[in-house]
Design brief:
Elements lengths: L2 H34 L9 E8 L2 H10 L8 H11 L10 E3 L2 E5 L5 E8 L4 E8 L2 H10 L4 H29 L6 H19 L2
Antiparallel strand pairs: 1-5, 2-3, 3-4, 4-5
Helix pairs in contact: 1-4, 1-5
Length: 201
């Protein structure tokens, strides 16, 4: 294969992977800074608490079908959403500890939970929103972000590998015209290595 054709193929993979990685690299680079300085960034907490009681007919109908429930019934979820603005997925499973059902609804940048007494119908709901910085920091870590986001991180990481490897190939092929290529590349590899060996204990 002629070198020009091969070079063009590498360049094509390089710019395609660069285009695919652009938004993700910016997100992960910026959130890398915010995570590194999390203690210096003021937290903006917003806490919502709801204490109420589930209507007895709805409660009895639900328990008649599920003596030891781990999921809320569709009518009960709809009532919570419409009456108290509490939304949760239909597949959300809780922890049953007779007579209490505990549901955790953590998400990126927020934590929420609901504890329901299945005998009295009384429940306590609490949601803590930690703000947009915490939201994007949790996306960086993949915390409570769901399977689709985890798949995105894996695919994005693979695209970054393609971007770096094709970039290295292009550096190698153009190094004869740029004498500083390998000194700079070596320096880029040595800096994190030396920091790890000398400053991290």
């Amino acid at each position: 294969m002629p070198m020009s054709a091969s070079l063009g193929s590498v360049r094509q993979w390089h710019w395609i992977s660069a285009a695919l990685c652009l938004a993700g690299m910016l997100l992960f680079a910026i959130t890398g800074i915010t995570l590194n300085h999390a203690a210096d960034i003021p937290a903006s907490l917003e806490v919502i608490t709801v204490e109420a009681r589930v209507p007895q007919p709805m409660l009895k109908q639900w328990l008649a079908q599920n003596p030891q429930p781990q999921r809320l019934s569709p009518p009960l979820r709809a009532w919570l959403a419409n009456r108290h603005d509490i939304s949760m997925g239909k597949d959300l499973e809780g922890e049953w500890d007779d007579p209490e059902l505990y549901l955790s609804m953590a998400g990126p940048g927020q934590d929420a939970w609901l504890a329901l007494d299945t005998q009295s119908g009384e429940f306590l709901y609490e949601k803590t929103d930690r703000g947009w910085v915490a939201y994007f920091n949790d996306l960086h870590k993949g915390r409570d972000s769901g399977a689709v986001w985890r798949w995105f991180i894996d695919i994005f990481a693979a695209a970054c590998v393609v971007f770096c490897v094709t970039g290295l190939i292009l550096l190698w092929r153009q190094s004869s015209n740029r004498l500083t290529t390998w000194p700079l590349t070596t320096l880029g590899m040595l800096i994190p290595l030396m920091i790890m060996l000398i400053f991290i204990h």
